[in-house]
Each structure stands twice: as C-alpha cells, then as structure tokens.
Design goal:
Length: 475
C-alpha cells in the first residue's frame, strides 16, 4: 500500500513539474533579428531535454540541452539583411513552436520615460506635430516593433507581455513617436529592415531602471524596496522597472540603444551623471555585446512650475546629460533646445528628436558622411577688456542665429550677479558683453528651465545650454 501511494505521488509530482517547451514573448511571429551576427535565443523545457532550433535561412540545425532549472539558450548565426521573410522552428522532440514572417535587419532598443513612450497618436490634448499624416503613410513591412507592457515588480521577471508587429496605420499610432521616426529614417537611408524594442514608462526615475545589485553596491543611500508596502509609486521606486521591463529581455541581440529620459530626475541633477553612466554600463554588461552604441536625447526646455516642483532649474539636468556624453564611450547626445514648450513637458515635434537620433546613428554607427549630426559645444572663454570671447568646437561652418538677435546670454562679474548680455556671432565665436559688467568673469547661455534656443550651427543644430562658472551647485 505504501509503495502504491509513493508511486502515485511520484507520478503526480512528475506530471505537475513537467515543463512544456516555452520561449519568452520577446520572440514571436513578425520579429526582427539582428543581421550578420549570432543572435541569442532562449527559453525553457524539461530538465535535460534536448532542444533543437531550425532557421529557414540555413540548412544548419542548432541544438542544446535544458539545464537543471529547465533553462536553455543558443546562439544562432544570422544572414545579411534583406526583404526576404523567414521562419524559425524550435522543438524538444515532442512540442514544436514555429515563428513565421521573420525579418533580419537592424534592431534597436528604445528606453525612457513619457517622451519616449508618447505614441504617434499623441496624448489626449497633446498632439504630435504631423503625426496623423505620418501614421497615414506608415505601412511598411520592413519596419517591425514590439512594446513591452508597463510592468513594475519587486523581483526580476522572466517574461514580458508584448508582441511584434508590422508598421501600419493601425499599429504605428500606438507606438513611440520618437522610436518610430528614428526607425523610419534608418530604414529609408540604409534600405534594410529595422526593428525596434520599446521599454518605457512615463514619469519614471533612472533609478527604477537599475538593478538591485548595482544600486546596492554603488549607491548605498538609495532606498531599495523590500516589500509591496515600500512601493509608493510603481514607476518611481528603484529597481521595479528593471525587474519587470529590462531583465526579461536582456540579451535579445541588438545593434544599439536610444533613450529619452531625465525629466523626472531634474530636481536632483547632481546625482544624475553617476547614475546615468552606471545605468549605461550595466545595460551593456547584462546584454553581453560589448560597448554597443548608446544615443540619447537631452531633455527639452520646459517651465517647471515651482509650486509643484520646487525651486529647481532643469538646466542643471541638461548640463548633467552633456557631461555624461563626454565620458561614456560610444555614446552621443542630441540637443532639443529649439523644440521645448513652455507649458507642456512633451514637445510636439517628435520627428525632430527621432531623426536627430537617427542621423547620429547613421554617422557614428553606420559610417555615413557628408552631413552634420552633432551640435557645436562650448570650448573656452577668453576675456578681452570688457568682452567675453567664447569659442566652440564642432562648428566648421561657423555659427548662426538665422538673422535673429541673440537673447539668451547672460554675463557676470566678480559679484556673481548675472545681467542680460549683448551677444554677437563672429564666425565660430561669440562676443558677449554688458554695460553693467566692466570686468566679466562668467557667461551663461540659456541656463533656465524654459528658453527657446537661438544659437545654432549653420546646419541648423542647436547648442546646448551651458555656463562657464560653477558657482551654483546642482541639487
């Protein structure tokens, strides 16, 4: 009798613990795989079970065995990008999963908060400029994308909710505008398929996208959640979005990443360079693809209401983002000083940001030449009597205000009081002065929450706000 009970229990245990063949939702019909490399495919099966993968683009068959936890992973060689569609079959000898309508091309990860999340159809009462026409013309089988559903979790997850889709008016309207415009220009200029993976959540802190291990080791003063009671805001609790929206997709082979985040960290800008650099380093480490390209948007000017956000100046966050671009290898920042909106934190001109990111990628990642893709940057200041002479890097065609008076410069003497300044462009330099400052010591340009940038490269790329002093420390 005891033997019978034991045998029945053993059979029941085997049935209950037997794992069916499964892959995470990041793999699916319509997916885009990175060209000319070995892409990682992973999933779950019975412990010790042999798993075989059969891509239609080759006669080769790839196989491995599930480990003691049931996890398996394989690297599959991919061909050069083309318009040809493929299938991919995964089998464990009993079950077969077949993915269809697969393309091979360039895959990019799109990260951030609401300005990355903002869809082509816009938010309510917040339209995308030109969005409806772009949606109308968006049908393109060679642009694919997947949106990771908002997921905030205490522990790292193994899967996401989301599915790959072809670009069409029905699908594009709900996808990231910044991401879509980025991918559309890559597809047009490279003439190969482009895939986009969107993982974003409006209002999120950079800390929420970072793992418990990295925050616990490098930022010990960050309060980490240990229970659901510690979670006051799902998108502003450290580690929660990493667990739900980064960890499950880490390792999906990509070409690079773009990001639009920072608005929710502006009130503690002093910490941002270290946090952002650590985030980029960790993202590259867990993807295990080396120092892949990482391009991002500088936040656009916006009039942060002091009654809601306190006495903070978002120019400090823009400064922090600029500093990050100088020290993070294989990175780049696009400047959006010319598209900010005083009363809306979500600029309508998403095509500008998306295409500037694409132009940077086309130049720095894909080697295209003949066009400008980086804004001029402040180099140095020289004082000549009552004038401050500012020089700039990356301005081979000099600077311009497009015929308008420069109104965003301020100048100060040793008393550290800034006055509105007269500014004149002299080729690739700017002369700044004021009748109220006889002995200049410092200059600031557009160093405010909201301001419309008025200094550009001749090619039309705006300069970031900047300052020559360090008198006021970022908070």
């Amino acid at each position: 009798m005891k033997k019978t009970i034991f045998l029945l229990a053993a059979i029941l245990f085997t049935v209950l613990t037997k794992a069916e063949l499964k892959l995470p939702a990041i793999f699916g019909n319509n997916m885009m795989l990175q060209q000319n490399t070995e892409v990682q495919i992973w999933g779950w099966a019975d412990k010790g079970k042999k798993v075989e993968i059969a891509p239609s683009w080759t006669a080769l068959r790839y196989s491995t065995k599930a480990d003691n936890s049931g996890k398996w992973s394989l690297l599959i060689a991919t061909p050069t990008a083309s318009n040809e569609t493929y299938t991919l079959s995964v089998s464990d000898g009993k079950d077969v999963i077949k993915y269809e309508n697969i393309l091979v091309g360039e895959v990019w990860l799109c990260l951030g908060q609401s300005n990355m999340e903002m869809p082509m159809k816009g938010f309510k009462n917040q339209p995308i400029e030109g969005g409806n026409k772009a949606i109308f013309k968006s049908k393109n089988k060679n642009i694919r994308f997947i949106t990771v559903k908002r997921t905030s979790e205490l522990e790292p997850q193994n899967d996401i909710i989301g599915e790959w889709k072809e670009a069409s008016p029905e699908t594009v309207k709900d996808f990231s505008a910044t991401g879509y415009y980025f991918g559309r220009l890559l597809n047009e200029m490279l003439d190969i398929p482009v895939g986009l993976i969107l993982s974003s959540w409006g209002g999120s802190w950079i800390e929420s996208w970072m793992s418990r291990d990295i925050l616990g080791n490098e930022f010990k003063d960050v309060k980490l959640p240990n229970s659901i009671e510690d979670v006051k805001e799902k998108n502003r609790t450290p580690t929660m979005l990493y667990n739900g929206m980064i960890h499950p997709i880490k390792g999906y082979t990509i070409q690079g990443a773009i990001m639009y985040q920072g608005e929710s960290n502006y009130d503690r800008a002093a910490r941002y360079p270290a946090l952002f650099q650590t985030f980029v380093n960790e993202t590259r480490r867990i993807w295990q693809q080396g120092e892949f390209p990482f391009y991002y948007c500088q936040i656009a000017p916006y009039n942060n209401p002091p009654e809601k956000h306190g006495d903070f100046n978002a120019a400090f966050l823009r400064e922090a983002q600029y500093k990050s671009a100088q020290v993070i290898p294989n990175s780049g920042m696009v400047v959006l000083m010319d598209i900010g909106e005083e009363r809306c934190i979500h600029p309508r001109k998403k095509e500008v940001g998306g295409e500037r990111l694409a132009m940077m990628a086309l130049a720095k990642t894909y080697g295209m030449t003949g066009f400008a893709y980086e804004s001029p940057t402040f180099k140095e200041m020289v004082i000549e009597e009552s004038k401050a002479i500012l020089s700039f890097d990356n301005a081979p065609m000099w600077l311009t205000s497009f015929g308008k008076e420069l109104k965003n410069f301020e100048i100060a003497g040793e008393d550290k009081v800034f006055y509105p300044a007269k500014a004149e462009i002299k080729r690739s330099k700017v002369e700044v002065s004021s009748d109220k400052v006889s002995k200049p010591v410092a200059v600031r340009y557009a160093f405010k929450d909201f301001v419309m940038g008025d200094l550009f490269s001749t090619e039309g790329l705006p300069l970031s706000s900047f300052r020559t002093d360090n008198w006021d420390e970022a908070k």
